[in-house]
Amino acid sequence: MTQIIEQMKKIFIIGPTASGKTELAKFIFDNFKTEIISVDSAQIYQDMNIGSAKPSSSELNSYPHHLINLIKPTENYSVSQFKKDESIVSSEIFKNKNIPLLVGGTMLYFNALEYPIDDMPASSEAVRKKVSEELEKFGLNHLHEKLLKIDPECTKIIKPNDKQRVMRALEVYYLSGKPISSFQTRNKTPQSKFNFLKIGLMPHDRRRLHEKIEIRAKEMIDKGFWDEVKGLIEKYPDLNADHNSMRCVGYRQAFNAIGKKVDERELMELIIIATRQLAKRQLTWMRGMDGLKIFDPFDLNKEGIIKETIESFLKS
After folding, report:
1. Could you write out the DSSP letters of every residue in 152-182?
2. Pairing mode, strands 99-104 and 9-14
3. Which residue would you say has higher pLDDT here, 172 or 32?
4. What is the mean pLDDT of the chain?
5. Distance from C-alpha of 118 to C-alpha of 116, rounded to nearest angstrom
6. Given CA atoms 74, 76, 82, 87 in this order, what sign does their dihedral have?
7. How far is 264 from 219, CA to CA, in rounded Å?
8. Predicted confidence band at 242 (pLDDT cuts at 50, 70, 90)?
9. At 3, is the pLDDT very low, low, confident or very high (cuts 50, 70, 90)?
10. How far is 145 from 232, CA to CA, in rounded Å?
11. At 192, is the pLDDT very low, low, confident or very high (cuts 50, 70, 90)?
């Protein structure tokens, strides 16, 4: 009976970009019988390594990750597909008598593991092209005004200058005939048979996180991020700015800069700004999560406290 109870448990490590989630996952992996599942909408793509902060080959040898390198950058992937894939992987982990350790910063994916979701339609090349043509012809303000008429609830969340989310909202409407807000109800009635321990890495001092983001952006450039994006364009001739992969922070800025007079320093600044905005959205989402146990990622004593927390969770 005890074993059955243990097999119904999962551990989440949730945090904004650059908050040290991977290092914490390694620590937990070393101390508990866990297997790591990536909860990252950028790491699912093959050949997108530097910009997604994907673990290196040597790291993956020591700390295997599930659900990375799943698809090509020209392919689509949905929240519902992630939920299906995670369910299959977790079932195998339980058979191995291990605990799924889910690590990442894609909040919609985490939400889907706890709460029911409608099957939001995946994008298509034709619809992406239609919305892109509207954007080029009429401009972003026109698209946001159109969205306001279609989905007033959605525009309370999506800002007029958030091109990516405005375009995605219109894509969903064209594909389904329903506003995107109808798929994003954030249903607060859990429909999961699992018991979750949700560890949230939330800095007390936002400036420390901003420093880490700047360091990461510099490291990305130094490791050859610019060449990585150029290599993607060469390897995948059909890749364009409307593919979901090229909407990921960092890749979007680099892709849009290709062919323009933007040097590496300017690209780094663009990435820093976009990553800070992403971190802000991630932290806002985390504040609305139920049952999240908050730890400061820059607290030198956090690992010991987290270890005790996990031990208590697994014994309960």
Report:
1. TTGGGTS-TT-HHHHHHHHHHHHHHSS-GGG
2. parallel
3. 32
4. 90
5. 7
6. negative
7. 12
8. confident
9. very low
10. 34
11. low
Q: How many CB atoms lie within 10 A of CB 89?
A: 17
pLDDT by residue (tens digit) across 8-27? 899 999 999 999 999 999 99
Report the alpha-carbon distance of residue 85 to residue 209 in Å, rounded: 31
Token couple for 312: 């208590």
How many C-alpha atoms does 61 have within 13 Å on its Cβ side?
A: 3
The DSSP 8-state label assigned to residue 45 in this structure reads: B
Which has the minimum average pLDDT: 100-104, 136-140, 158-162?
158-162
Name the pTM for this structure.
0.83
Measured CA distances, 29 to 65, 258, 283 (Å): 11, 39, 25
Please answer whether residues 107 and 285 qualify as being in contact, where contact means their C-beta atoms are separated by less than 8 angstroms: yes
CA distance 217 to 269: 8
Q: Number of helices (H) and strands (E) in the chain: give both, helices first.
A: 13, 6
Angle between helices 206-222 and 225-235 (to 10 degrees): 60
| CA–CA distance, 129 with 131 (Å, rounded to integer) | 6
pLDDT exceeds 90 at position 31: yes
